[in-house]
Design goal:
This protein folds into six domains: 62 residues, Orthogonal Bundle (Helix Hairpins), CATH 1.10.287; 236 residues, DNA ligase/mRNA capping enzyme (D-amino Acid Aminotransferase, Chain A, domain 1), CATH 3.30.470; 76 residues, Nucleic acid-binding proteins (OB fold (Dihydrolipoamide Acetyltransferase, E2P)); 71 residues, 5' to 3' exonuclease, C-terminal subdomain (DNA polymerase, domain 1, Orthogonal Bundle), CATH 1.10.150; 71 residues, Orthogonal Bundle (DNA polymerase, domain 1), CATH 1.10.150.20; 85 residues, Rossmann fold. The protein has 25 helices and 24 strands. The strands form six sheets. Strands 14, 15, 16, 17, 18, 19 and 20 form a seven-stranded antiparallel sheet that branches. Strands 2-13-10-3-9 form a five-stranded mixed sheet. Helix 1 runs antiparallel to helix 2, helix 13 packs across helix 14 and helix 17 crosses helix 18. The radius of gyration is 34 Å and the shape is elongated. It starts with a helix and ends with a helix. Bound molecules: 2-(butylsulfanyl)adenosine. The site of 2-(butylsulfanyl)adenosine has 13 residues, from strand 3 and strand 8.
Amino acid sequence: MSDESVAKRIARLRELINYHNYRYYVLDSPEISDAEYDALLRELRQLEAEHPELITPDSPTQRVGGEPSDRFERVEHPVPMLSLSNAFGPDELRAWRNRIARILSSEAVEKLAYVVEPKIDGLTVVLHYQDGLFVLGATRGDGYVGEDITANLRTVPAVPLRIPIAGDARPPRRLVVRGEAYMPRVAFERMNAELSARGERTFANPRNAAAGSLRQLDPKVTASRPLSLWTYQVVLAEGGETPRTQWEALDYLRRLGFPVNPLNRRFEDFEALVQYCIDWEPKRKELPYDTDGLVIKVDDFAIQEQLGTVGNAPRWAIAYKYPSEEAVTRLLDIQVNVGRTGVLTPYAVLEPVRVGGVTVRNATLHNEDYIREKDIRIGDMVVVQRAGEVIPQVVRVLKEVRTGDERKWHMPKRCPVCGEPIVRPEGEVAYYCVNASCPAQLVRLVEYFASRNAMDIAGLGEKQAALFVEKGLIHDIADLFYLKPEQLLELEGFKEKRVQNLMNAIEAAKNRPLARLITGLGIKFVGSTVAETLAQHYYSIDALMRATEEELVQIEGIGPKIAKSIVDWFSRESNRRVIEKLRAAGVRMADVAPETLEEGKRPLEGKTFVITGTLPTMSRQEVTEFIVRHGGRVTNTVSRRTDYLVVGASPGSKLRRAQELGVPIIDEEGLKALVNEASE
Ligand code: IVH
């Protein structure tokens, strides 16, 4: 970026951040998520770090929080409120401890103890007491000056109006404590339901609800809101006890009658603390209120003082946060992936970003329509989401931070891998590369052909498939059966033993049941279930090849889309050549039809089976193969023509249907017994 555009960008970012600060702190009505806000601030900080000459005193990076609103009186905090630095995960937590250990003497390090507190996701409040009476309550504001919300805080039952509530603690002359006001989740949901029933504005989350409720001009409204409080810090105690540690301070607060979170813990063993933080993650979801992590504090106040602060944050405390499942990053480019069936899937190339504990570099964009609907452009700041094992996806664009340099994207006219023209079939959202010898498709197809559900060739995965295609060893799936050990031995990482194993696996694959071969061809819409249906109906590739669409749609479970796809596939010359090559290599092309099975090998002849649930020892595919091998048929729906329902654990609705129709129900044992009895 030129210096001029950097300056422009910085100005734009400041404007945006100020605007969102105002929405958040003054209007209580944020438009963007915390992650999005953080991304803006991060970008500004980075640009300012690279160009320190552009930092101005009024930059949003130069202060702690937002402007206090002039709806309330201003309250200057006796001690400025700092922020906390974050540690994501155990390693960053250990790094924090190592940093502080380097500053301290070895004796101090020896006796370091820590207090761990849940980090409540609410609104920070500062409570002032004079001779035991609650006299003033304030929000955090910008860290130096907050808003006077005394009248509202008086309505919160957890805020003591007079201390001590009970017991023998002497009231200090002056006391200032900090805590977090929050709304329990259940109360939040109930309140939102009531608000929406009255047609009033609802809140996005409990945090906003707590903030909105406390920053009301009418305390009666606050009083009607289910708010609560946990206190965690003694800011000032004149004429009272002087706790020397955080643990003592928490105890003092408790004795004075303040609500103190019972989940606070003290640790002397740092590794035990780390483990506690790790174990906390699943538990926090069960709490009745929202937390956004844990706060870890050095227990001893003298040591806290010695450690001091860096920038806005104390060195003696850190927030342990759990990786968020959403993050904001820049979309650097949009590229297209070519799948096994030739389907073209656009995906985002991202500036690497941590989401849910892993670094994400790519995210799916699904299809061209998705990109158009969300108006996703190259150069955009985007929100990336990752849920569990699911592929990360771009969920939305931060349009408000656009600079005008973003570029619209269009699906390329040709396959990015083979350069052949692409097509978009009518009624589909996806584009396809229909070139059967497109190398990208070939890699995916070979991988799929060899996969567990198809020809089950151990030792042949994506890496090997890509290597074989790249080295020109295979041009179609049939070439796999023509590989020679000498060729493989020349490849990096292929030692004698590994080559032998792979050759054996390929040899074994020649004799798979027909359904697996059909699956492995990679015909669009033909997965292992459809392949099984086809195999049971036709018994051979040759019969299937001759099938017409009209004929195929007669088969239960085969619709017009599948039928057309099958006929199209077999009508292509290149595909027929592959079939002939497979045949010539000795790959099995047919199952034995029941009528040609030897006597005694067809105990299940003429019988139709349906399978539901999980069987103890056989996979769905194995049971099907077992039944077919013994002359039976397997269909997917229970009807009057079904002879047996084979039931495993957690059966589906098929079980009820079979009971209604009076279809005999057997388990895996029963199925095996049918075969054995008949062959005896
Ligand atoms: S101690 C010097 N303890 O988290 C830091 N803060 O970024 C003093 N918070 O808005 C903060 N629970 O109000 C501390 N147990 C806890 C907390 C806690 C929530 C909030 C705090 C502030 C933010 C710190």
